[in-house]
Write a structure and sequence with these properties.
The protein is an alpha/beta fold and about 500 residues long. Helices cover about 30% and strands about 15% of the residues. The chain has two domains: about 300 residues, FAD/NAD(P)-binding domain; about 150 residues, FAD/NAD(P)-binding domain. The chain has 14 helices and 20 strands. Strands 1, 2, 3, 4, 5, 6, 17 and 18 form an eight-stranded mixed beta sheet that branches. Strands 7-16-8-9-12 form a five-stranded parallel beta sheet, with no helix packed on it. Strand 14 and strand 15 form a beta hairpin.
Length: about 500
Amino acid sequence: MTVTSKFDIPNSLLSNSNLTEDKNVFETIIIGSGFSGIGMAVNLKKYNRDDFIIFERDSEVGGTWQANDYPGCACDVPSNVYSFSFAPNPNWSRTFSPQKEIQEYLKDCVSKFGIADRIKLNTEVTSANWDNTKKRWNVQTENKKTYFSKYLVAASGALSEPSIPDLPGLKTFSGKYFHSAKWNHDIDLKGKRVAVVGTGASAIQFIPEIVENVEKLYVFMRTAPWILPRCDRNLTRLEQVLFNKFPVIQLLVRAAVFWARESYFLAFTKNRGLMKIAEKLASRHLDKQVDKDEIKAILKPNYEMGCKRILLSNNFYPVFNNKDVELINSSVSEVNNSTVVSSDGTGVDVDVIIFGTGFNVAEMPVAKYIKGQEGATLSQVWQGSPRALLGTTVQNFPNLFLLMGPNTGLGHNSMVYMIESQINYVIQAMKELTKQNCESLVPKEEAVSGFTETMDKMTMGTVWLSGCVSWYLDKKGRNPTLWPDFSWRFRSKTRQIRISDYNVD
């Protein structure tokens, strides 16, 4: 059963919106229409700050759940916590939601809360500059139109810019290639020789879905991931009826799942010995699902569990029992005409290359085109090591709010919880400026540096610094990505803004 919607959003409404063409001044401009952007918009409207617009570069809302539509795409966080607290969905079909249902859920939220007419699709932001004199943001879109706002909310997230390695010879590859986040559905893989580069969270989902169609599958794996069983099942009709008729039951289930997952954090930080138990479960999972000992040896990770993202799958390992699948324990070094060459010299001829190589996560993609009061972009200021007070505000960038910014990522619970915490913090900031009848606020240098130092200290001794190379860490080896504490503590710190951390003008 799929998510059923009571709401029908006309394409014309989403494509053009009810905004008059000559209106270009708003209190708030939001970039992105995923969980962050939609959640921000709903709360702005709730607090009667409904003079806003959302710019979405794609043709539909949904953010990463619109862009990633590869075969088998699904969430690895339970459905009941991977949704807004203010919009429970009693009709999830599974305990772990598939991509299409999550996107439909977000569309439903857009319609239910009446924000469809504030969204401009197919509108990419190309620059955002702070005007010191007028104390406002000047935002330019791809069509060269300029918009102005008091507040700018960057809600485009970290999983929006696919990362394809710059391989010698790739551009002259005789076949076809694409990234999993930009899946080319026009390419029929049936009977093709296919190379998959990468074995991360996306690859372990799509590889089992395509293996039966291809003639030969070559999987290039640089580092073996830790994989645990995926405890996924269909939600029963009885559960859905109970959730619909008695919403409190779903709230109790949500709370139980949330607190159970909060306990996982102990294994990452305070009691890493707990990870040994999880490692044994993962090793048993591998041993049961793969036949050949030599393949098991290659698929056994050589780093402490949790140092990289822990993956969930019931059907990835069995792929390697298929005689038409070859596991190459190496990265790719180059492409030579139709041949993909690994760093150990292995060469295979293929028709299609699929990159499951993740995203540019350490720095938000919007960082390269947002300029602050000193004329420098976020990228120039951060220099590859992002820093923000509570992952939300940045020194020298007045009235800029980052959602899913530095040190807000989680390895154990739902990002939607973190997003809602940040949204509350942003609303508090706006209320404070209104109360003081002021135009702008910007975090003090000591507040940002103090928060960053705290994050660095809290990361010391965690599994994330146990020696592996992961996208959690920047090039300097520090953690600009994850929140190194229980997520409820982040909620506590963002419940009320501490205005003494800011210069208010």
